[in-house]
Amino acid sequence: MKSNSSPHSKSKEVHFSKITITDEFWKTKQETNRNSAILHQWEQLEKSKTIDNFRCLSGEKEGFRTGYFYTDSDSHKWAEAASLILTNSKSRKLEKLVEDYFNLIDKVQEDDGYIFTYNQFHFPEQRWKNFQIEHELYCLGHLIEATCAYYLATGNKRILEIGETAAKLVINGLSDFTAKHTPGHPEIEIALIKLFRITKEKCYLELAEKILEKRGRMKFFVLQILKENFSQSKRTKLVEKQRKTASIDSMTSETKIMSDLSKDGPSGLFIRTYLQFLSGKYFQQNAPIRKLNKPIGHSVRWGYLATSITMLFQETGDESLLNTLEESWDHMVCKRMYVTGGIGSLPLSEGFGRDYELNNRHAYNETCAAISSIYWSWEMLIATGQAQYADLMEWQLYNAFLVGMSEDGTTYFYRNPLETNGNFERKPWYKTACCPSNISRTLAKIGQYIYSIDDSTLWIHQYVGSSFNYDLEDGKVISVSMKSGFPWKGNVKITIDNGSEKKLAIKLRIPSWTRKALILVNGKEESIPEFCELDESTASGYSPYNSYYLPLELDSGKSEIEMNLPMETLLRKSDKRVKGNRGKIALTRGPLVYCFESIDNLTSDIPDSRINSNMVIKKLSSDSEDKVVILGIEDPSGEALKAIPYFSWGNRGKTAMQVWIDYEK
Ligand code: FUB
Ligand code: ZN
Fold this sequence. Notes:
This protein is of the alpha+beta class. The protein contains 17 helices and 22 strands. The protein has three domains: 31-244 and 271-419 and 428-448, Glycosyltransferase (Alpha/alpha barrel), CATH 1.50.10; 450-568, Immunoglobulin-like (Sandwich); 591-664, no CATH class. The structure holds beta-L-arabinofuranose and zinc ion (ZN).
């Protein structure tokens, strides 16, 4: 399997097919993903008739198309997730489902590569309408990504051609590509760069570059968006008319239950959202990409856009792109991110708010937004080799990402507030079902994020139990095997067999949250800074900037690195400018953010709870266990509060929950 090595990157990816995950924690999550989540999602795609939309077009079934115009992307993303799962494991059942899916897609795709069920079903004569609002290119992007994943898993070129034909259609069908053709929801740019990396065909990279360079350059965006809005409303009405003629109830029972578009937000939200829409900020169309130095607008769109720009930088080396990316990443982390690593504080626009506008109840924090941010940080890490990117990835993986799926893999959060009353819970599916398969594809390739390599250096970014062999060009092999107690214990043991005669340089990430780290190499203590003050200069109280890479050098042959990264319980404070968090703390331990559920904490009105400096924080599980660490906070009278990891909240029935809790000195 080829690893991605782009010319302007500090290191190159080790494809996750080469990594065996042995980790207690993540292996269990991957098993749930494989044995439960991905099959549950398929059932839901069937139940919601998303797959039937393709069957109706292929002639396999009679019926009327169901769902929003972007539902194709849900099943394409599912096919990508399933292909990624199949890369490292076998399941005849899943293989059959994916094969059948691609065969169906093959039938529905038109000869010139077009496929978008909304237009094909309702408006067969119309294409390339409403680039900002409707999602033709977004859906094609997810299809291209799915075919790439399937090709890498199976070597099946016929399926990769489905993606290639779709990409070529955009090249040829939109040869007069202008700013108004740039998509309102980025995604295809990532897909095209992935396709380029696999096929080495420059035309895909050039198309991605063209799409990115033309963004934000539309004159009079407001006129374009009003025109599209009008056209889209008209088309929606026509669809309703068609539906009535076909005697179908406009809201089928599947679609009624699943909407989660919360509008419960700050006053003035509607007008702010509308203005963002008109100005193009919602779509990141308000300025060319080199001027987007603050995260704005819809947060998933932002994350995908930033990911693709970073990938473009890796290919072209254009420093002006990297400068803006670094600036906007810092801005996001310092001023527009929650302590959980969640991004997107505003409902309705599903997007970023103003600096320090981080309300805990309204927090939108879509699971996909966290995923998009993880993807972005990974590309930044590969591009620059800076530890803060790996640190945020760890933080978001454990906190903002994992929370999106229940322990059994069958229910999901779309939004992830930091404080809720007892009426908020995970659901089996959503009318907009982007998050479940996004979680599954990320879990399937988690191995991707542990290591990277350059000519002479092995980078160790994440502490996830795993093993892999790296083949050097001269036929020699480097074997790596890691055992990790994360996220409960900070003990890590890494055994490296350096099969080369040359020394091997290692870059070992020291996380931002640990102090007094102890590192032994072959039993000898490495000297590292003894004590680092926690950098709390961010809005959220979490800061990745104290993380760094410890350089080591290993001789030929076997070496053992032992790490002890103390996981202290910390009381984090946010910036005073975050209004709702004044006088409050958030409890964190190692890479985990904790929260309080009303089920554990006697009172049902959990916001009344408070802790103070006389209280003692204890681990409620014994040291010998590798299980969930629950924290008990006891006051001298023996009264106690219980805190659990935020990612695990909402797994025991309905409950109120809060992360930030009143604190008295
Ligand atoms: O628009 C497609 C997807 O639906 C977005 O990525 C999500 O945020 C949701 O709006
Ligand atoms: Zn989503």
